[in-house]
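Memo to structure team: turn this sequence into structure tokens by end of day. - J.P.
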Amino acid sequence: MVETSLNEVDAGVVEAAQSMGASTLQIVWKVYLPEAKPSLILGGAISLVTILAYTAIAGTVGAGGLGDIAVRYGHQRGITSVMWVTVVFLIILVQVVQLIFNWLSRRIDKRLDQPSGAKKSGPLDLLPRFAHTK
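Reply from structure team:
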């Protein structure tokens, strides 16, 4: 994840830093990491959700946790409501993690900044483009 995030950094920015005489350590700390920060945060979200999924899978084979509750009480004892509650809880947990990390990534991403005079657009601003009025 980190390698992919760092590969997304524009080569022109790195070349500009090199032409200004920046050392390798300065390029890493002042160019690569700030430029790749939003992508690194999203990679962290993917990693966290993957770990959550692996722990639920491990619970199904006896490691304990939510997967164990879903299988032991929900599936084996025939109490499907317990199984569905744990599944819904896992889905909600994943969605919360995704929302938090996406919000944080959007907040940090400087490429999304608009000039102070620019009007922020909302979802309904595109509606007139698609309206078929005569």
